[in-house]
Specification:
It is built from four helices and seven strands. The protein is α/β, with parallel strands linked by helices. The two termini are 15 Å apart. The relative contact order is 0.19. Helix 1 packs parallel to helix 3. It has one domain: Nucleotidyltransferase, domain 5 (2-Layer Sandwich). This is RNase H type-1 domain-containing protein. GO terms for molecular function: nucleic acid binding; RNA-DNA hybrid ribonuclease activity.
């Protein structure tokens, strides 16, 4: 059974049946030397398998923050022996950098290399909730 647009849990689109999906994000405070990352891994029924939030010290771009959040999420999945099949990100430059052989975010190349090692199936990185829904519906 494929999910429909009603298969939403807040701003979370459920993954296709029997898959685990990782959603991560970052919150930067303007003018502060601090940020926070959050991660949730859920199944196709919306059940949370694991989640975490973590403060980070530093000041960085939205793209670098999203990459740090994604790496934390993949490390969390690895620590819990969870096989994540889908990763969702809302920042197009992040997905482009991960799927490109060029170094689009050269200052974050070490983070990109970590993510590539943790999540080798980068074709399952969706740019947005809408693109994931379209993929599951076969649009």
């Amino acid at each position: 059974m494929k999910p429909t647009s009603s298969a939403l849990c807040g701003d979370w689109i459920l993954p296709c049946p029997s898959l685990l999906k990782l959603k991560s994000g970052v919150a930067n405070r303007k003018g502060a030397w601090a940020a926070g990352v959050g991660v949730a891994i859920r199944d196709d029924k919306g059940r949370v398998f694991t989640a975490m939030s973590k403060p980070l010290t530093g000041s960085f771009s939205t793209e670098v923050g999203e990459l740090l959040a994604l790496r934390e999420g993949l490390l969390l999945a690895k620590a819990h022996c969870l096989s994540v099949q889908i990763v969702e990100d809302d920042v197009p430059l992040v997905a482009s950098a991960l799927n490109s052989l060029d170094t689009l975010l050269w200052d974050a190349s070490f983070i990109i290399n970590d993510i590539r090692g943790l999540f080798p199936k980068l074709e399952n990185l969706y740019l947005s909730r809408q693109s994931h829904l379209e993929q599951c519906l076969g649009s």
